[in-house]
Amino acid sequence: MRLFLFRHFAHQGKVGAFYGSTNLEIIPRAVSDLSINKDIDVLSSPLLRCQQSLERLGLVARDSLEQAQEVDFGEWEGLSYEEIEKTYPAKVLEWQNDDDFTFPKGESLKDFHARIIELAEIINKQKKDIFLMTHGGVIRYLICHYLGLDFNKSLAFKVDTGSLSTIDIFDEGLGILSSLNLKEEDSWRASLL
Q1: CB neighbours of 163 closer than 8 A, spacing ≥ 6?
Q2: What is the full DSSP assignment across the chain?
Q3: What span, in angstroms and rounded, lies between the C-alpha atoms of 132 and 4?
Q4: Which of 68, 73, 83, 87 lies at a CB distance of 3.0 to 4.6 Å from 45, suitable for a disulfide?
Q5: Taking Cα atoms as reference points, which of 88, 111, 107, 108 lies closest to residue 98?
Q6: Which InterPro entries match (predicted)?
Q7: Average pLDDT of 24-39?
Q8: Of the given ranges (4-8, 22-26, 166-170, 187-191), which has the lowest mean pLDDT?
Q9: Domains of the chain and CATH, by start
Q10: Cα of 11 vs its chain's centroid, Å
Q11: pLDDT (0 to 100) of residue 37
């Protein structure tokens, strides 16, 4: 099975700020329909930026999955790393060194890990290739999951907005990262044909 992971298009939030559960609109821009010519299931995060990104590509999700939402950054939503570091210096150190970290008034990394594993189980039960419209953190964690890497390695993968990445998944539940950060419409189409 092939898993196509699309990170939503750029949103209207502050550049460089953390947005997880905040429901932001995408920046208007013309993109022609993606027109997938193969038997594929389209799944998505329910957040507005993902739904609008699907519309921009001319795709309709079969299912909207709560498990595909970005981590909830809590009080850190809308803040840049510099603002977080200035306001919460002790918490930033804790975040960097604690696998059981919880974002202030947000989600714990432990709960986010569990959601990603649950999402992977949903994906693994599918009979067709999957196109998943989701978020950068979800994509990085899914890459780690399918490559057999610890989740704390997730920041080693840069996932741009408006990019397509693919993982070939085998019966054992492991995979190969076959592309990362394809950003041009022609490369998306070539990957999906």
Answers
A1: 6, 7, 180, 181, 182, 183
A2: -EEEEEE---BSS-TTB--SS---PBPP---------S-EEEEE-SSHHHHHHHHHHT---SEE-GGGSPP--GGGTT-BHHHHHHH-HHHHHHHHH-TT-B-TTS-BHHHHHHHHHHHHHHHHT-SSEEEEEE-HHHHHHHHHHHHT--GGGGGGS---TT-EEEEEE-TTS-EEEEEEEE-SHHHHHHHH-
A3: 6
A4: 68
A5: 108
A6: 6Pfruct_kin, His_Pase_superF_clade-1, His_PPase_superfam
A7: 72
A8: 187-191
A9: 2-73+108-192 (3.40.50.1240)
A10: 14
A11: 60
Task: Give the span between the Cα atoms of 122 and 130, in whole angstroms.
Answer: 11
**Buried b or exposed e, range 122-146, using 16+ CB within 10 angstroms:** ebeeeeebbbbbbbbbbbbbbbbbb
Place of tokens 């953190």: 137
For tokens 């947000």, what's the residue?
Answer: 106
In the chain, the N- to C-terminal Cα span, in Å, equals 14
Locate 124 and state its tokens: 């693994």
Distance, CA of 155 to CA of 167 (rounded, Å) = 17
> Residue 111: pLDDT above 90?
yes
Q: Which two tokens stand for residue 43?
A: 């799944």
